[in-house]
Amino acid sequence: MVTKHSVAVKIYNYLNHTIELAELVDWCENVMVEGEIVEQDTELISEVVARIGVADVNNFGLLWKECDELLRKLGYQLDFDLKEVA
User: Fold this and answer.
1) Cα 58 → chain centroid
2) Are 35 and 78 in contact (CB under 8 A)?
3) What is the Cα 38 distance to its own chain's centre?
4) Is pLDDT at 58 greater than 80 in this prediction?
């Protein structure tokens, strides 16, 4: 089942560079076609994954600010740390 949490984790993984945009977009497209979305959250989850699903189109993209807003809609807040890269 696709939940608000599973969508939030995918967005987080994208922002944390553990998955690429193409993988996030593919996952969202699959959710829209085949995903079993938790019934009480169907409208919200569908709205969020539909937005991300078009992020691979040049005119749409996916900004950090948009990810933050989508996560807030899902009930999550981003916190991040600054780490020096060796």
Assistant:
1) 18
2) no
3) 16
4) no
